[in-house]
Amino acid sequence: MEIDSVRVESSLWIGNKRYRAFLSGWYFSWTEIDKRNREKKTSTTFIIVLNAPEFQNCGLVSVPVSEVIGVKEGRVEIQTQKKVEDTDLDFTLFYVKRNRRVNEHGLSWSLGRTQFCCPSRGVRDQWITQLRTALKTHSPSRPHRLLVFINPFGGKKRGKQIFHSLVAPLFELAGISSHVVVTERANQARDYILKKDLTGFDGVICVGGDGMFSELLHGVIGRTQQEAGVSEHDPTVKLQPCDLHIGIIPAGSTDCVCFATVGINDPVTSTLHIIIGDSQPLDVCSVHYQNTLVRYSVSMVGYGFYGDVLAESERHRWMGPLRYDYSGCMVYLCNRSYPGLVQYLPADSHISSPRDKTRCLSGCRVCSESKERLFPHFDSSSSLYSTNVSQYSSELEGEWVTIEGRFKCVSLTCMSSSCPRSPKGLSPSAHLADGTADLIIVRETNPLGFLTYLHRHTNKQDQFDLPFVEVHRVKAVRFSLPPGEKEEEEYEEEDDREIQTSAERELEDPEKLSSSNIAGHSQQHLAGWKEKGSETSRLKRQGFVCGPCCTKPRSVSVWNCDGEILPHTEISCRVHGQLVRLFARGIEDSKMP
Ligand SMILES: Nc1ncnc2c1ncn2[C@@H]1O[C@H](COP(=O)(O)OP(=O)(O)OP(=O)(O)O)[C@@H](O)[C@H]1O
Ligand SMILES: CCCCCCCCCCCCC/C=C/[C@@H](O)[C@H](CO)NC(=O)CCCCC
Ligand SMILES: [Ca+2]
């Protein structure tokens, strides 16, 4: 029997109203049929009708089976699963409910619940069996077991509370088991994913902000490359796409990755996307310094203003999420600009453009069509990536373009990077999974001009329609300093001694060893700490740690890579199309009813 040709149908009651309910292919639907007989709960039959004609009625409620969260016996309370009344005739359906849109951006989801009363226990049991079978058939990619990392100190420090009060009850309702790790130090989640046995887990989840997401990103990419024998340090290598899905429960300061992939930073909405096993591929940008991987980024690699804001904000961590607003004002008042040489490899301009005024929404055509271009050897029948292809990427072929000058900021973003501060983001028409990033260059301008640019991130005006701003859709970028400003590798003797001893101390203590924020492995750790120290002393020399009162002009800024300061200035970046997958589906179209 073909399940698609089966239709399950019967009369059911919701409260004291009688409904005709039917399960047909991908949908479970119900519609009120007989208002006059609403008190008569007898003589109803349970039938399975093959290829029955569609039931036409207004007031029809239809729930896609793929959006059913669970089916429970009895009358069950929302979330707590506390049974109010356990009768033989009732079952409760939990499903995704779309809330009324409050703004033009994200659409929040909540848990819908409907309690049905059946004419007999037999009918009730058949409905439960049929619905659960349909769920298994039509929603095969749901996770069953998840590894959850909670950062208790992220954002407003509400990570644990958010997980236990909002997320865990929904996982339980959906029959998902989870192993929870409350982190005790930075990079614990990354190291866990890199080193521990992950057998049986269908995904990894972070409860935190963009920094926590970044840990999972580095863990998942690093582990996949280790297992595939691919060197992450080689800037030309083709990285292996990652199968293990990442989920984000937003509990951070910016939550940019969550906002840009879901449209809203709401823990319940994100939990429901995880439960139904949504899958959103995501482009990732690798950042190299010479032949060493520095970090990966999905959101923003930014030099100048955004680097300075991050450096300044580190001094004001105690302010919580407000530190970025405060630092933004301070850095704006400093009115700095920096010299540099930017080189980029343009993406194919026939496919899309950063100024085409389109938005990457759920089911985006540009992103789906990119899959074939990005993975020409992908076998969709087996879902396998062929191993019989070159290890090196042909993506780096093409003519590089050079731009030289003084810049307020240089930003590269693989996605729109929308966040609550800027609901349309750094590049509103960027795509989540097209294998390209947008390079935004803001040349030196007067303070009012730059304020106009920043302000346009928050309203409907085009932030690229300014004479000192240019934007390019690219596959790779290189940045270098003018000859007179080359990176200083030496650092002060005093700092050197201090760094050497702290690095040596760490080498003696293996627990601490893995806590460095610098990408790389243990043998590079000492070198890594030296780099980190030189970065600190460089920042000190440049006066970032003195704040805007400092009068000395500075000619070198720092790179902000998804909220982390990079230890190098002359970097090269490359986009890896659809390298990872999130439990998300992109932003749902605001024009949908
Ligand atoms: N237990 C911990 N103690 C200290 N730092 C931690 C711990 N767990 C995680 N971290 C680190 O804290 C950093 C910030 O965390 P997170 O991203 O969750 O919050 P946030 O900075 O407030 O949010 P956002 O990144 O969105 O601005 C992360 O880079 C992460 O590596
Ligand atoms: C007159 C009004 C002016 C308002 C200006 C608003 C401009 C906002 C642009 C939004 C850019 C978001 C870029 C995303 C960065 C994240 O990867 C990163 C990690 O969370 N956050 C920061 O670096 C935190 C630093 C964010 C700097 C704002
Ligand atoms: Ca992209």
What does this structure look like?
The chain is α+β, with helices and mostly antiparallel strands and 593 residues long. It is built from 13 helices and 26 strands. The strands form six sheets. Strands 15, 16, 17, 18, 21, 22, 23, 24, 25 and 26 form a ten-stranded antiparallel beta sheet that branches. A five-stranded antiparallel beta sheet has the order 4-1-2-3-5, covered by helices on one side. It has a four-stranded parallel beta sheet with strand order 12-11-13-14, with helices on both faces. Strand 19 (378-379) and strand 20 (384-385) form a beta hairpin. Helix 3 packs parallel to helix 4 (210-228), helix 7 (305-313) packs across helix 8 and helix 11 (493-508) packs antiparallel against helix 13 (525-542). It is elongated. N-((E,2S,3R)-1,3-dihydroxyoctadec-4-EN-2-yl)hexanamide binds at residues 210, 254, 256, 299-300, 306, 309-310, 324, 328, 417, 419, 421-422, 426, 454-455, 457-458, 560, 562-563. N-((E,2S,3R)-1,3-dihydroxyoctadec-4-EN-2-yl)hexanamide binds next to helix 7, helix 8 and helix 10.
The CATH C-level class name of the largest domain: Mainly Beta
In terms of DSSP E residues, the strand content is 25-35%
First-residue to last-residue Cα separation:
35 Å
- Ligands bound to this protein structure: adenosine-5'-triphosphate, N-((E,2S,3R)-1,3-dihydroxyoctadec-4-EN-2-yl)hexanamide, calcium ion
CATH topology (fold) name of the largest domain: Tumour Suppressor Smad4
Largest sheet: 10 strands, antiparallel
Give the averaged pLDDT, no decimals.
Answer: 83
Point out poorly predicted stretches.
Answer: 38-57, 489-537, 539-552
What's the total helix number? 13
Cα-atom radius of gyration: 27 Å
Shape: elongated
Look at the helices and sheets and give the structural class: alpha+beta
Estimated helix fraction: 25-40%
Number of domains: 3
Total number of beta strands: 26
Protein name: Ceramide kinase
Keywords: Kinase, Transferase
InterPro entries: ATP-NAD_kinase_N (IPR017438), CERK_C (IPR045363), CERK_PH (IPR057465), Diacylglycerol_kinase_cat_dom (IPR001206), Lipid_Phosphate_FormReg (IPR050187), NAD/diacylglycerol_kinase_sf (IPR016064)
Region (Disordered): 482-534
